[in-house]
From TrEMBL:
Organism: Alexandrium catenella (Red tide dinoflagellate)
Protein's UniProt name: Tr-type G domain-containing protein
The organism's taxonomic lineage, starting at the top: Eukaryota, Sar, Alveolata, Dinophyceae, Gonyaulacales
Domain of life: Eukaryota
Tr-type G domain mapped to chain residues: 1-161
Single GO MF annotation: GTPase activity
InterPro entries: P-loop_NTPase, T_Tr_GTP-bd_dom, TRAFAC_GTPase_members, Transl_B-barrel_sf
Keyword terms: GTP-binding, Nucleotide-binding
Length: 274
């Protein structure tokens, strides 16, 4: 569907990548995807974003699930080309339905459907409407509300994200959708901290680096916390969000933490709670 090409176009449009980085990214796309590509963060006047490029390969569903557990919103990339969309949306073998169900099951609050490769269909309004009706009906049937789903026409290869070639489309642009995601309410500092941990790596310095998502409370460097189910105490040495050190992180934020007092990464399996 051109997902990773579109990911590169988004980072370029936000100014996160220059033309050279974008060209290098396109050159590397011939290799099979097996890992989540993680952007260190994009800051705009409206929002601070962390973008994750999830493998579309059906064999990488666990990787996709780990990334979706961190996400507030999902960009579901589909191809406007007839045979490609029909194959992906096939009721028996298409991965599109599985990805949508996975997103809903792991708590995604909204979905932006990027109908990609619009250049291939001459920015046809009829084709866009056909895909919107078919996929929109399915997304609503699995639990996404009418206001939770937005369809936008794009072409990642040419970098056309503003739909300037689609004057008939007036219901939002991709970059605007990304910077206006409805987030959970403000964190209440008095509530106990809960961080769902998704990955742990032992650093050469001896501290444990973990990635996760703040589900409750506010986390700051210097806090003493308990790890479950390990039942061990540790100290938060540093908190990073959007690729930089921060003094605190609250509800819904994806974070990287440095923890002191934990023996080994194997002691903190995916799904542990801080």
């Amino acid at each position: 569907a051109g997902k990773s090409v579109l990911y590169g176009a988004i980072l370029h449009a936000f100014g996160r990548w220059d033309a050279r980085a974008l060209a290098r990214h396109k050159k590397e796309l011939g290799t099979e995807e097996t890992e989540v590509r993680r952007c260190c963060g994009v800051e705009t006047k409206k929002a601070r974003l962390m973008l994750l490029d999830v493998p579309g390969n059906p064999r990488c569903v666990p990787e996709a699930g780990r990334a979706l557990a961190e996400a507030d919103s999902v960009v579901l990339v589909v191809s406007a080309k007839g045979n490609e969309f029909d194959k992906a949306f096939d009721e028996r073998f298409g991965p599109l339905r599985e990805h949508a169900l996975l997103a809903k099951g792991l708590g995604a609050r909204s979905v932006v459907v990027a109908v990609n490769k619009m250049d291939e269909v001459q920015w046809s309004e009829a084709r866009f409407s056909e895909i919107s009706a078919a996929l929109g009906g399915f997304l609503h049937s699995v639990g996404f509300g009418q206001d939770d789903v937005t369809f936008v026409p794009v072409d990642g290869l040419s970098g056309e994200l503003a739909a300037s070639k689609a004057p008939w489309h007036t219901k939002g642009r991709l970059l605007d959708c990304l910077t206006t995601v409805q987030l959970p309410g403000p964190s209440i500092p008095s509530l106990p901290v809960r961080v769902l941990l998704l990955e742990a790596v032992k650093e050469k310095t001896g501290v444990l680096s973990v990635e996760g998502r703040v589900e409750c409370g506010t986390l700051s460097p210097g806090q003493e916390c308990m790890l479950a189910p390990l039942d061990a105490t540790c100290t938060v040495q540093a908190v990073r969000a959007s690729g930089r050190n921060v003094t605190s992180a609250g509800l819904g934020e994806a974070v990287q933490l440095l923890l002191q007092g934990v023996g080994d990464a194997a002691d903190v399996p995916r799904g542990s709670v801080l």
